[in-house]
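job 3f2a | input accepted
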Amino acid sequence: MNPFGRRNHPRRLTTARPANTPLGMHDIKFIRENPETFDLGLKLRGVAPSAESLINFDQARRGTQTRIENLRNEKKRLSAFIGQLMGQGEIEEAQEFRDQSVEVNRELSRLESEFEHLQDVNDLLAALPNLPADGVPEGADEAGNVEVKKWAPDGSPPRPHEGMAEHFDIGAPLGLDFESAQAVSGARFAYLRGPVARLNRALGAFMLDTHTTKFGYQEVAPPLLVRDEAVFGTAQLPKFAEDLFRTTDGRWLIPTAEVSLTNLVREKILSEAELPLRFVALTPCFRSEAGSAGRDTRGLIRQHQFDKVEMVSITTPEASDAEHERMTGAAEHILETLGLPYRRMALCTGDMGFSARRTFDLEVWLPGQNAYREISSCSTCGDFQARRMNARFRPTGEQKGTRFVHTLNGSGLAVGRTLVAVLENYQNADGSVTVPPALRPWMGGLELLEPAK
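job 3f2a | predicted structure (453 res):
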């Protein structure tokens, strides 16, 4: 039996939502007070206006809940009164109140059933994306993304495409083996052997060591299998279940360490003094790549299993924008230290991920493809994920009040794609690959990868 079969229809997540957020992922008070702003944000994300229907659902739900509470109180009152009358021997009078109690129970049962149905508004909210931050470029797809900066070593132009091979041709003599993986696992898997395997390992270790020593991230070795609640908390569920792999016991293989790392603060109340929290992990990641048929079918760009270094930050709302810039800078530092040309792109409203309110993509130059390709995506999510996880902090000086934290995540970097970039940018005419100088301490001083003779 294949333990990694996907289920297209995961069970309803009735226990996965934070307890104190009955209307889910967005602030219903904000929606009531700013319906036009809310609908505009959804429109920019390509989603139909929803404020009016959500407000109506909320009003109906709260009204029904009030009636249920009143009827439960009436039921208790009648029960006590009936008991008192029976104790006094007033049987006929007690029967009259019993009849009233039957009617109360009937109406209470009807309203409780109605209330259970009204709670399905959570599913509507769970399917709505985060609202874009001010200043995010407007656009329907990647054509609306805006280049913010471009970098290359010494300011020189990226290596030209002419005469450059793609990574799968360069890597094959160095131990990049797709044919064996196809026989063992099917499409979109690879064996890394010999020099390529060593280079891949060195890249991951270099990234981890840089983020922990230079940027103060705490290294974490997290679980690779998580429960529904964790994947719901970071918003891969319920909307993107088909993009994930699920085991036969109901756990999910992580599509990114963002899931495990961000959920470290799930259901917690932190002190403001603890923030920011910064975590980093190097893990395998697993994605079904649903909907990507025909895209990047050759090579390492789009795999079912790949290694990635992931950064996660937990901050106060006031610090989240600065933390986003800091995180993006940490990812850029990796590229610059390796001497890999790249550009930073501000994603438009229609191309951002579901949880993001602002995203910067870093795209590395691949001369073999004659194109820039995404190698890192750094996003600030505001309190969108925190509401799903019920992750809060208590501001300094306050004894009772709490606020939702802000969460951020970013690739620092995708290891396989960095391997691709090194192979293509450092390729030599004789088929060898020069090891980037900054990486050589993690390669035992090796300066050149050469094909086996």
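job 3f2a | Residues 51-87 form the longest helix (37 residues).
job 3f2a | closed
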